[in-house]
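Reply to dn_fold:

You asked what the input looked like. This is it:
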Amino acid sequence: MVKVTPKKYIEIGIGNTWLVRTEVECENGEEYEEKWIKGPVYFQSAYIRIWFWKSVIIFDSREGIKTMEKNCKKFKLIFGIVSKQ
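and this is what came back:
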Protein backbone atom coordinates (compact mmCIF):
# COMPACT_ATOMS: atom_id res chain seq x y z
CA MET A 1 0.00 0.00 0.00
CA VAL A 2 1.30 3.44 -0.95
CA LYS A 3 1.30 5.95 1.88
CA VAL A 4 0.13 9.40 0.82
CA THR A 5 1.75 12.29 2.66
CA PRO A 6 -0.79 14.95 3.58
CA LYS A 7 -0.21 18.19 1.70
CA LYS A 8 -1.00 21.77 2.43
CA TYR A 9 -1.56 24.39 -0.29
CA ILE A 10 -1.17 28.04 0.63
CA GLU A 11 -2.75 30.16 -2.11
CA ILE A 12 -3.00 33.87 -2.84
CA GLY A 13 -5.10 35.14 -5.71
CA ILE A 14 -8.53 35.65 -7.19
CA GLY A 15 -11.16 33.01 -7.81
CA ASN A 16 -11.06 31.12 -4.51
CA THR A 17 -13.35 31.56 -1.54
CA TRP A 18 -10.82 33.88 0.12
CA LEU A 19 -8.00 36.03 -1.29
CA VAL A 20 -5.55 34.13 0.97
CA ARG A 21 -6.32 30.56 1.99
CA THR A 22 -4.80 27.29 3.12
CA GLU A 23 -6.18 24.03 1.73
CA VAL A 24 -5.25 20.76 3.43
CA GLU A 25 -5.49 17.33 1.81
CA CYS A 26 -5.74 14.60 4.47
CA GLU A 27 -4.39 11.06 4.17
CA ASN A 28 -7.92 9.69 3.74
CA GLY A 29 -8.51 11.90 0.67
CA GLU A 30 -10.66 14.51 2.41
CA GLU A 31 -9.92 18.19 1.87
CA TYR A 32 -10.73 21.30 3.83
CA GLU A 33 -9.82 24.96 3.52
CA GLU A 34 -9.22 27.73 6.02
CA LYS A 35 -8.93 31.47 5.69
CA TRP A 36 -5.42 32.93 5.80
CA ILE A 37 -2.10 31.08 6.15
CA LYS A 38 -2.02 28.19 8.61
CA GLY A 39 1.47 27.15 9.66
CA PRO A 40 3.90 25.73 9.98
CA VAL A 41 4.96 25.83 6.33
CA TYR A 42 7.51 23.32 5.02
CA PHE A 43 8.19 24.47 1.45
CA GLN A 44 8.11 21.80 -1.27
CA SER A 45 7.31 23.76 -4.44
CA ALA A 46 5.73 26.94 -5.81
CA TYR A 47 3.14 27.20 -8.56
CA ILE A 48 1.00 29.54 -10.62
CA ARG A 49 -2.44 28.26 -11.60
CA ILE A 50 -4.51 29.89 -14.34
CA TRP A 51 -8.04 28.55 -14.70
CA PHE A 52 -9.93 30.05 -17.63
CA TRP A 53 -13.36 28.66 -18.46
CA LYS A 54 -12.81 24.88 -18.33
CA SER A 55 -9.06 24.85 -19.02
CA VAL A 56 -6.42 24.90 -16.28
CA ILE A 57 -2.70 25.54 -16.77
CA ILE A 58 -0.33 25.00 -13.85
CA PHE A 59 3.30 26.14 -13.82
CA ASP A 60 4.93 24.22 -10.94
CA SER A 61 8.58 24.63 -9.85
CA ARG A 62 8.89 20.89 -9.12
CA GLU A 63 6.55 19.23 -11.64
CA GLY A 64 6.82 21.62 -14.59
CA ILE A 65 3.87 22.64 -16.76
CA LYS A 66 0.60 20.71 -16.50
CA THR A 67 -2.73 21.22 -18.24
CA MET A 68 -6.14 19.78 -17.44
CA GLU A 69 -9.79 20.19 -18.24
CA LYS A 70 -12.46 20.72 -15.56
CA ASN A 71 -16.24 20.38 -15.71
CA CYS A 72 -17.11 23.76 -14.21
CA LYS A 73 -16.55 27.16 -15.79
CA LYS A 74 -14.41 29.49 -13.66
CA PHE A 75 -11.70 32.10 -13.74
CA LYS A 76 -8.85 31.82 -11.23
CA LEU A 77 -5.40 33.35 -11.09
CA ILE A 78 -3.53 31.87 -8.15
CA PHE A 79 0.03 31.91 -6.78
CA GLY A 80 0.62 29.10 -4.32
CA ILE A 81 3.11 27.02 -2.46
CA VAL A 82 2.95 23.33 -1.61
CA SER A 83 3.91 22.33 1.93
CA LYS A 84 4.00 19.01 3.66
CA GLN A 85 1.58 18.79 6.56
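The chain has a mean pLDDT of 91.
Hope that clears it up.
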